């Protein structure tokens, strides 16, 4: 039987004011974030290609906004566009 599970390279949860940001790196290229509000409701999912300098910088900004204040920065976080 074939095993279709993906081995996780890195996984972290960040907490701020009841909000949760899950960070998962499944391979050497893609890192995903999933954001949940203080009620535990899913808000959004973003994927970053960390081998691209622009994506890596956007990831840093996104984390900073979360750490500063996810409620205050939510609109900026939602509008963040990763350009290819």
Helix content: 25-40%
Spans of at least 5 consecutive residues with low confidence: none
The protein's oligomeric status is: single chain
Into which percentage range does the β-strand content fall? 25-35%
User: Based on DSSP secondary structure assignment, what is the total number of beta strands?
Assistant: 4
Averaging pLDDT over every residue, what do you get?
91
For the largest beta-sheet, the strand count, sense and barrel status come to: 4 strands, antiparallel
Helix/strand order: EEEEHH
> Tell me, what's the shape?
globular
Secondary structure class reads alpha+beta
Termini distance? 38 Å
* Tally of distinct domains: 1
Strand arrangement within the widest β-sheet reads: 1-2-3-4
Whole-angstrom Rg:
14 Å
Separate helix tally: 2
What does this structure look like?
It contains 2 helices and 4 strands; from the N terminus they run ββββαα. By secondary structure, the protein is α+β, with helices and mostly antiparallel strands. The chain has one domain. β3 and β4 form a beta hairpin. The longest helix has 16 residues, at 53-68. The chain is globular.
Put the structure in a nutshell:
The protein has 84 residues and is α+β, with helices and mostly antiparallel strands.
Which characteristics define this entry?
84 residues, alpha+beta, 4-stranded antiparallel sheet, 4 strands
Give the helix/strand layout:
Layout: E1 10-16, E2 19-25, E3 30-36, E4 42-49, H1 53-68, H2 74-79
Antiparallel strand pairs: 1-2, 2-3, 3-4
